[in-house]
Structures are given as C-alpha cells and as structure tokens.
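Page 47, continued from p. 46.
Same chain as before, 124 aa.
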Amino acid sequence: MRALNLRFRGKDKVTDVLSFPAESSSNRSSSRAFAGEIAISADIARKNAAHLGHSLADEIRVLALHGILHLAGFDHERDNGQMARKEARLREVLKLPATLTERANRNHRAAAKTRTHRAGPRTA
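Result:
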C-alpha cells in the first residue's frame, strides 16, 4: 500500500484504502460501466477493527464505502464536507461503524485541542 500510495499519489506513507477510477471511454461496448478498482490494506483493516472494537468485516465495509465514494467522484480533501455527509448517511443506512471521514474529523479536533492546550496558538 505504501508503494502504491507513493507511485500514484506521491505520498510516501502507508494508507488503508486507495481508489483507482477507471478511465472514461465513450467507446464502451457494454451497457455496464466499470467504475475502477479499490485497494484495501488487510493489515491496517485488522488493526483498526481491533482498536475500534468492531469486526474486520465491518472495517472492510467501511473502507470499501470510502473507496466507492471516491470512485463516484467525491473528494473529502476538496469538497467542503460533501463526501463526509454522504458517507455518514450511507453508514447509517448500512449500519456500519464510524466512517473514515468521521474518524479523521474526530482525530483532527482532538489533535487541535491537544496542541492548543500544550503549546498555545499554532504558528505556521
């Protein structure tokens, strides 16, 4: 996963899920569209499931949902919360544990609170 993340995203770090959208083509011979591929790290999924107290199957479903939303064109890094809202709604319908964007938002808020308490205002 680290090698894939470096090769396709330029980020030299391990990640839990990567999405690879299919190239669009107007010459499809079938009425079925191929959205792309998703790579999920089984090791990270196993660790996350144990840490978060839910099943490995549920964790893989959470990661697959996240990847599918990326294949559908959502981008949580640039969409002002649109993907996070969609992911949260689908999580509830599918009865899944907290989604990746929910976890990231929670971790971001906790880290910001810790930084503020420990070091005062952050400087760039």
